From TrEMBL:
The organism's taxonomic lineage, starting at the top: Eukaryota, Metazoa, Chordata, Craniata, Vertebrata
Stated family: Belongs to the dienelactone hydrolase family.
Recorded GO CC terms: cytosol
The protein's name in its UniProt record: Carboxymethylenebutenolidase homolog
Gene3D superfamilies: alpha/beta hydrolase
Gene: CMBL
């Protein structure tokens, strides 16, 4: 997503052609894409979208790949029916668009997803991974939900505030060295603050030569 202090375009990369192995379900008031693991091991991962929405094939591919490793995965529509950002959209309107899609105000929807995974999928161990906008959401959730076993925040924007470093469970932060959206100075600040305040395990990994959006873009997956 864009830097809160200086919003700028996010690169969608190549939208892959991918049908998916899962199916869409209704989770209370939101829709979601669900893929069951071939082995019912009681493990699940919530995959959180970037600004391009829960139906982006690239994100569903990532969810299916995780499912193939023994986890039931679910990609909820955390925009709750609101339109995702369109790659050809006018970036000058992005800050206003973002106001109605706050990555730190998804607790109601996330609680519904947790309930669904526990009751309908018999999940006992649940983790979360998010990209871009979803990476910010993961950071928020790891501060609020101690039942989450682990979280992975992938190039999520960093907000410097006193209450964002008390992680409840192990969290991995992934960044790109050449990210025009998230400067390395912000990554360094996060590293410093977590070292000072965090009481659980965490890791910060910056990938050399990469740019924002590199993890689940076609040019990286299939290059």
């Amino acid at each position: 997503m864009a830097n809160e202090a200086y919003p700028c375009p996010c690169d969608i990369g190549h939208r892959i052609e991918y049908g998916g192995l899962g199916h869409e379900v209704q989770v209370e008031h939101i829709k979601a894409y669900l893929t069951k693991s071939p082995v019912d091991a009681g493990k699940a991962v919530v995959v959180i979208q970037d600004i391009f929405g829960w139906q982006l094939p690239n994100t569903r591919y990532m969810a299916d790949m995780i499912a193939g490793n023994g986890y039931t995965t679910i990609v909820p529509d955390f925009f709750v029916g609101q339109e995702p950002w369109h790659p050809s959209g006018d970036w000058s309107t992005f800050p206003e668009w973002l106001k109605t899609r706050n990555a730190r105000k998804i607790d109601k929807e996330f609680d519904a997803v947790l309930k669904y995974l526990k009751q309908q999928c018999h999940a006992k161990r649940i983790g979360v991974v998010g990209f871009c906008w979803g990476g910010t959401a993961v950071h928020h959730l790891m501060l609020k939900h101690p039942e989450l076993r682990a979280g992975v925040s992938v190039y999520g924007i960093i907000k410097d505030a006193e209450d964002v470093y008390g992680l409840k469970n192990p969290t991995l932060f992934i960044f790109a060295e050449n990210d025009a959206v998230i400067p390395l100075e912000q990554v360094s600040l996060l590293t410093q603050k977590l070292k000072e305040h965090c009481k659980v395990e965490y890791q910060i990994k910056t990938f050399s030569g990469q740019t924002h959006g590199f993890v689940h873009r076609k040019r990286r997956l299939f290059a």
